[in-house]
């Protein structure tokens, strides 16, 4: 017997859990479906933390961040637990780097508090780092990190408190879309709803192909590395900022990281990784090659962790669009189907806002947030 809901959300990662929360807040009977266990490690949303920042090279993301910080703080109040930790953040690299220059311009024009530091000034303020003579550094005090797994579980907790049903280990092999309804076949039975929100992460492309659209998404296998420096205090969230190094190597790989907190270790990773044909084919075994390629950067720029032993490593998937902007939009043929996809390794910080936007698109047909960058038509028209 088919069970009916007002809205079905497929994928319970960062975006899907948030969408379920905001839909349930508006009185919708919500079913949240996850093919693996809640907060699993095979996608993009698991872990200690993700960077949150205003500092972006595109002003639209700066404005979206202004919408997002208050939503995280409101969520903290609802849950009664801390999700956001402000450490401050630095973007640094050659002064003529175009993405760094654009980031500086966006932050300056936004009116946000910031400091533009010479190498000498940056060195004095952040002794963990080394800054070459041709570098400049942008410091923004509101940057920090969001506790990733805690946020996913928190959104689901609140959705369930509002009556949502969340089923994990429930794969969705089939979607059927009617004129004003949807039906999904799952490993645990048949369900129907008036609205469908697809937030399936790296599996979105194959799932949405059933609805007649071919999203230009590619899946990247990215490795996260967590080191155990001897001087943990200096490299902890109490004393060290989150960082983005605008120092792309010949493969175009930028580097970023988060200081140690709550037993996490000091994070360092490439903002890139090799493409895989399908997420089901990902090898989740970390390699020593990845951290070996990062050691020269660490010796030059963060020497206190350069030779630190590896505390832990894991694989995280990026689902990337060609322009690295998100897809947050209604299906081009079915207005009752809403898509959140392609968050390209920089979307988690916005996930509570994205969830709200998806709920508004599903229920109201539009959102008050600026979604001009995220339209599907840029790939289908």
Quick one: biggest sheet?
9 strands, mixed
Class by alpha and beta content: alpha+beta
**What Rg, in angstroms, do the CA atoms define?**
21 Å
First-residue to last-residue Cα separation: 40 Å
How would you sum up the global shape? globular
Continuous helix count = 9
* Low-confidence residue ranges: none
| Percent of residues in beta strands | 25-35%
What string gives the helices and strands in order? EHEEHEEHEHEEHEEEEHEEEEEHEEEHH
Helix content: 25-40%
Report the count of strand segments: 20
Q: Can you give the mean pLDDT?
A: 96
What key phrases describe this protein's structure?
single chain, 381 residues, alpha+beta, nine-stranded mixed β-sheet, eight-stranded mixed β-sheet, 9 helices, 20 strands
SSE arrangement:
Layout: E1 3-10, H1 14-25, E2 30-33, E3 50-52, H2 59-79, E4 84-86, E5 89-94, H3 98-110, E6 115-117, H4 119-125, E7 135-140, E8 144-146, H5 148-161, E9 165-167, E10 174-177, E11 182-186, E12 189-198, H6 204-208, E13 218-227, E14 242-245, E15 255-258, E16 266-270, E17 275-276, H7 288-301, E18 310-320, E19 327-330, E20 337-341, H8 351-364, H9 377-380
Parallel strand pairs: 1-2, 1-12, 2-9, 5-14, 12-20
Antiparallel strand pairs: 3-8, 4-8, 5-7, 6-7, 10-11, 11-12, 13-16, 13-17, 13-18, 14-15, 15-16, 19-20
Helix pairs in contact: 1-5, 1-8
What does this protein structure show overall?
It is a single chain. The protein is 27% helix and 27% strand. The chain is α+β, with helices and mostly antiparallel strands. Strands 5, 6, 7, 13, 14, 15, 16, 17 and 18 form a nine-stranded mixed beta sheet that branches. Strands 1, 2, 9, 10, 11, 12, 19 and 20 form an eight-stranded mixed beta sheet that branches. Strands 3-8-4 form a three-stranded antiparallel beta sheet, covered by helices on one side. β1 (3-10), α1 and β2 (30-33) form a beta-alpha-beta unit. The longest helix is centred in the first third of the chain and has 21 residues, at 59-79. The radius of gyration is 21 Å and the shape is globular. The protein starts with a strand and ends with a helix.
């Amino acid at each position: 017997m088919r069970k009916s809901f007002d809205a079905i959300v497929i994928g319970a990662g960062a975006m899907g859990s948030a969408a379920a929360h905001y839909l349930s807040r508006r009185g919708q009977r919500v079913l949240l479906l996850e093919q693996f266990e809640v907060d699993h490690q095979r996608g993009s949303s698991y872990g200690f933390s993700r960077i949150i920042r205003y500092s972006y090279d595109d002003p639209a993301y700066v404005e979206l961040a202004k919408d997002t910080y208050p939503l995280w703080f409101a969520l903290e109040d609802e849950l009664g637990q801390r999700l956001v930790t402000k450490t401050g953040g630095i973007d640094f690299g050659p002064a003529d780097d175009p993405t760094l220059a654009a980031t500086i311009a966006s932050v300056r024009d936004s009116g946000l508090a910031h400091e533009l530091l010479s190498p000498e000034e940056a060195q004095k303020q952040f002794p963990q780092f080394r800054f070459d003579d041709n570098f400049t550094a942008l410091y923004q005090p509101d940057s920090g990190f969001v506790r990733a797994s805690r946020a996913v579980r928190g959104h689901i907790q609140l959705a369930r408190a509002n009556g949502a049903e969340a089923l994990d280990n429930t794969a969705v092999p089939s979607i059927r879309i009617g004129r004003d309804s949807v039906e999904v076949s799952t490993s645990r039975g048949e369900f129907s709803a008036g609205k469908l929100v697809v937030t399936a992460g790296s599996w979105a492309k194959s799932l949405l192909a059933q609805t007649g659209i071919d999203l230009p998404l590619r899946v990247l296998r990215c490795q996260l590395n967590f080191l155990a420096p001897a001087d943990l205090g200096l490299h902890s969230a109490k004393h060290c900022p989150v960082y983005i190094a605008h120092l792309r190597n010949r493969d175009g790989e930028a580097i970023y990281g988060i200081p140690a907190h709550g037993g996490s270790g000091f994070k360092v990773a490439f903002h890139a990784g090799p493409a895989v044909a399908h997420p089901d084919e990902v090898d989740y075994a970390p390699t020593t090659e990845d951290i070996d390629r990062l050691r020269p950067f660490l010796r030059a720029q963060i020497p206190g962790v350069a030779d630190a032993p590896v505390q832990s490593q894991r694989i995280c998937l990026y689902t990337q669009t060609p322009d690295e902007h998100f897809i947050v939009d209604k299906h081009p043929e079915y207005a009752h189907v809403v898509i959140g996809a392609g968050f390209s390794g920089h979307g988690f910080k916005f996930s509570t806002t994205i969830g709200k936007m998806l709920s508004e698109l599903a229920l109201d047909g539009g959102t008050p947030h600026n979604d001009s960058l995220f339209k599907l038509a840029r790939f289908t028209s």
